[in-house]
Each structure stands twice: as C-alpha cells, then as structure tokens.
Amino acid sequence: MSWKHVWIVFKKEVKDMIRDKRTLISNILIPIILMPLLFTLMGGGIEKMEKDITENITVALAPSSNTEEMRNFAVNELFVDNPNIKLIEIEGDPVEAIRNDDVRFVLDIDENYIEKLENCQPYSVTVLYDQSDTKSGGSFGIVASAIEQYSQKVVAQRLVDMNIDLNILQPVQIQQSNAADEKGSGNMMLMMILPMLAAILIAVGGIPAATDLVAGEKERGTFEPLLTTQSGRMSILLGKYMTVTLFSIICVMAQLIGVFIGSIVSPGFLTMGGTGADLSFYIPPVALLLTVLITISLGMVFAGVQLAVSTYSRSFKEAQTYMSFLMIISMIPAYATMMMQPDDVQLYMFFVPLLNAIASLKMVLGNVINYTYLGIALATSVAYVFISLVLAASMFNKEKVLFRS
Amino acid sequence: MLELKELTKHFGEVKAADHISFQVGKGEIFGLLGENGAGKTTTLRLLATMLKPTFGTAAIAGYDLVKEPEKVRSSIGILFGGETGLYDRLTAAENIEYFGELNNMEKTKLKERVKELSEIFGMQEFINRRTGKFSRGMKQKVAFARSIVHNPDIMLFDEPTAGLDVSAIRDIHEFILDCKKDGKTIIFSSHTMSEVEKLCDKVGIIHKGKLADYGTIPELMAKYNEKSLEEVFIRLAGEKI
Ligand SMILES: Nc1ncnc2c1ncn2[C@@H]1O[C@H](COP(=O)(O)OP(=O)(O)OP(=O)(O)O)[C@@H](O)[C@H]1O
Ligand SMILES: [Mg+2]
Fold first, then answer.
1. What is the pTM of this model?
2. Helix %, strand %, coil % for chain B, to 5?
3. In sequence order, which residues have a C-beta less than 8 Å from that of residue A78 and are 6 or more positions away?
4. Is A232 on the interface with B (CB under 8 A)?
5. pLDDT at A182
6. Would the ipTM clear 0.90, i.e. be above it?
7. Does the CB of B81 have a partner CB in chain A at under 8 Å?
8. What gap in Å lies between CA B153 and CA B118, rounded to an integer?
9. Per-residue pLDDT tens over the stretch A277-300
10. How far is CA A178 from CA A47, A175, A187, B107, in A?
11. Which residue of A124, A191, A331, A388 sits 20 to 30 Å from the alpha carbon of B69, by its own alpha carbon?
C-alpha cells in the first residue's frame, strides 16, 4: 500500500463526486435547507401557539351575569392588570360559543358578589372552558392567576384597612435556584433533533459515493483497468474509503450549518417559542472534541460497511437496494431514541454501534456529561471502524465477489 | 517475453484454467480461442494479476506473476470486454492522467505523454471535454490511450471487438496492429475466426480450462490436416457428436 496512491485515488474520487450534481444536492443542499425549513414550519407553529395561549385570551360573561356592572367589574377590577385578557360579547349558548372557538372562557360571576364582598364572604367565579383544548388549557393558568391576583389585592386591602402587616400572610418565602450547570442546561429541541438527524444523515451521506465508487465502477467497466494499475488494491480501497467518509461527514456538517441558519431564520423553534435568551448553551471543549471524534468514527464505520456492500453487489441497482436497507436499519435506533433524555442514557448504549454516537450527542447537548461513557463510546467506535475496514478489505480481496457478473 | 507455466485457477470445483502453458515472443500477437466458459477471461485476468493463480505461474517481461505482481502490472496494459469504461464526469485528459498517475508516472512526463497520445489518436479537439457525452468512437480512442499511457510492453485484450460495429472493429484492429508495430507483445481473446486469422501470429485453443493446442495457423492446419482454422477449432474445442 502506498499513501501516494491512496491520495491519487482520493483526489480523483472527490473531484468525480463533486462534479455529480446529485451528490451536491443530496449531500449539501438538502441538509442545508431541510433544517431552516423544518424550523420555520414547526417553529412558526409553536411560536403562534405560544402567542395565542399567552396573548390572545378571550373571555365572555355568561348570560346570567352579563350586565353593565359586571362588565365594568371584569374589565376594571378583575383583569385590570392583564391587558392580554380581552372581554368580548357572545351571542347564544356559551357552551356552543366555546365549542365554536368564538371565545375561550366564559365566566359566571356570583350575582350577589358585591354584597358578599362587603360582608367578607367568599363568592364564586365559575370559569367554563374546553379542557381538551391545548390552547385553553394553557391559557387557563393565566386567567386563574389573574383572578388569584385580584383576590390577593382584595385581601391586602382588607389587611391594610385592619392595620395588619401584610407579612403575616407570608411566613415562608420561596427562593428559586437552578441546580443545572450554571453555564446552561442544554437545549431540548437540539437534544431531540440533532442526534437523530446526525445518525440518519451520516448513514445517508456516504451512500451516493459508496454506490458509485465500486458497484458503479464495476458496471461501467473501469474497475478492471483500475485493478491492473500499479497501485495496490488496498490503496484503491483506502482512497475510496476516505472519499465515502468525507461525504458522510460533509452531509452532517451541512446539517449543522442548516441548524445554524434555521436558528437565525426561526429562533422560536429551538427555544420552544421563548425569546431566544436561552439559546446559547455551552459545551466543554473536551466533550465537544470527543463527540466530534465519535461522530466521525460513525461516518467511517458506515463508509466501511457501505463499501463492503457496494463491492458485494453485482450492479449499481443491487447496491442501491442494499443501501436503502442499511439506511432503514440506521433509522430505527435514531427514531427510537428521539425522545430519550440525556439522563436516560444507559451504559450498554455506549457499546452498541450507532447508539453510542446518538447517546454521546444527547449527553453533550443536554450538558449531562459522563466522560467515562464518552471514552467508552470512542473506544468502541474505533473498534467498529477497524471491524468495518476489515470487512471492506476482505470483500475487496474476494475474487469471487469482485469478478462475478 | 511471456511464458505461462502450468497456470491454473480453480473456482471451487470449476477448473477455469487448468495447467495452461505457452510462450509468446516479443512483438507477437497471440490469439486465445475457446467456447463460452472455456477460461479465456480467467487466463487473461490471471496474467493481469487480477486473480491469484491456484497453481503455476507465468513470467511476464521477465517478472514473476506471483512474486512480483506490481512489476508485472507496470508492464501490461489491458482493454477488457467490448465496453470502453471511462469516468463520465472526468475529461478525456483526466481519465488518461488518472491511470498514468496510478502507474507512477512523473507529472511533467505524464502531461507530455497525454499530449503525445492525443496527437496519435487525433483527440486534440475533445481532450479537455468530459467524456460523458462522447460518441462511441471518441470513447474508444480515450480507452486506447489510457491502456497504453504508461507505455507497457505487453497488451492484454479480452474480446476487444465484441458487440461493436464494423468501423469500431476496424479501429481496434488498427490499434492492435499499431501496438505490434511498436514492438508490443499482445494476447487477445476472441470468438471471431476471421479476426484471429487476420491479426494473429500464433493461436491457442482453450477447451474446458485446458489448452488443447497452440501454434501458428499453418502449423495447426498441417498438424490436424484441416483446411481452415475453423475446422481445427471445431476439432479441438467443439462438442463431439
Ligand atoms: N469469479 C468467478 N467465480 C466463480 N467462477 C468463475 C468466476 N469467473 C469465472 N468463473 C467460471 O470459470 C469458468 C471460465 O470462465 P471464463 O469467464 O474464464 O470463460 P471465457 O472463456 O471467458 O468465456 P466467455 O467466452 O463466455 O467469455 C466458467 O465456468 C465460469 O463460470
Ligand atoms: Mg470471457
């Protein structure tokens, strides 16, 4: 084997693949635009929903309490501090109005409330809403706390009237403190999506190259002359192997660029409708390096397996069939672990190919880093790289496989 | 120049090449005749070092096939099958240069060689265009140039004219004769008697992996007392009724 020949093969293959428009589209263009598209579609929806829940809350009064006085009470007292809650008029049956989405809440206020208020008796405000509706459920908390706020205001006023210190109502004051790493607690969305897509794209990214580089070459009739040049078989294999690895990594990089563009185009998605303040999160450099290495090794494992498959195939078509099968295999763990949280990862995962990369990415993105686990993942990844290379090399040396037609 | 010594290849039970021995001198054209599955391609692949022999060896340009496969590869050029396999997305020059580089040619020498070949084959007009849209004839020229870019002493052709039209066949014949003129030693396989009669100095007839006999055409006709090469072939390789 000679590195000079490896390099010649690698250079030629990369040039050849780059000139193929299909590779450019599937390896670079699609991953880059997929992310912003996904973010905008899903992010837009989340943002709109969030806005609907918190900002466009409509409230109406039940017919029995819909009087001038009650309306004044609602607007000027009950919801005076919540301009996001709007009082509107409805016609007909309140239940019907809620079902038709004409209004989100209907309030039925005790008709004797003034009397009861003055006598310091509790009076009731019944809130009618569709509990099966996500938006109404989300908004209910806001309406309830508005009423609670009003109620506390009344209490405070009464205590002041009685000359009692407000503090006697609050023996304990709760202080919140975040136990997660100060440097940021990771990003939910990225944690769900990135490992899954990375696993799939790294499997997909090498496919066009791997298919073309051996099965395609056999079919075109360039393979036999290539094998009779002075470069040894292993140099040819290694040059091709590096090319396939490169393209699967390019695919993942394109995806990362896509995530970056997506987070600019539609920041609401990553922050689940929040303001974007919690988008910045921190990954320790060592952990980052380890995950990058693990991801690259995953690309190399796929490259080896795909080249072996491509060598085994009689034709381009046959190779494509096997490749799509390989892709489906990689999708199963990717989807199965999508909802997995970083503290759900288990030791065995770091020994299983593909799962080890997904679990590592989850841990690092979730900032729950266990360096022993990362180390195991890297060690097993390297072992799998070696195994996949041996597999590809053995295929490449099998005369029966190489020259069958 | 080329000497096969009991060259043998088994694929499991199948003896694709079975103790094949013959010699070809410098500047000679040797034709391999045989029915489908006789072992012609296998023999040529063995000589091209694509397959490892089960038994036996060959001396090619003074190098041992088994012990010095890399040296052997530096002295051979091949053109296998009727297909002129090229990389569609590379230019004609890039296609040729790739094989030159892999054959350890030095950069500046290689450039000169490509220029020279492009003149020899009249490819100046399309040498820097991608081969994907080339006509069959243009592709063939590139494939010829590629096979001799490193100026090998020995050329191996496996059914070079299979499935080609008349003018393409004539171009190949010319190419083979030009190679001979340049002092190259040539082995090619064929199913076409007239082609073999036209080009070959010596003929070998393979039957079920074994070399039935070999020699010049007149020698063989005299030996078997037949009036044509075809008759000799039928006698040695045809199924007995
Ligand atoms: N890679 C391989 N694996 C297994 N058997 C093979 C392989 N290559 C060739 N054979 C077998 O070896 C025998 C000789 O095949 P070969 O291709 O050398 O014949 P051929 O003379 O070139 O035939 P044709 O005229 O059809 O091209 C056949 O029986 C074939 O099936
Ligand atoms: Mg054949």
1. 0.81
2. 40, 25, 35
3. A125, A146, A147, A150
4. yes
5. 45
6. yes
7. yes
8. 20
9. 455 566 788 888 888 899 899 999
10. 25, 10, 15, 65
11. A388
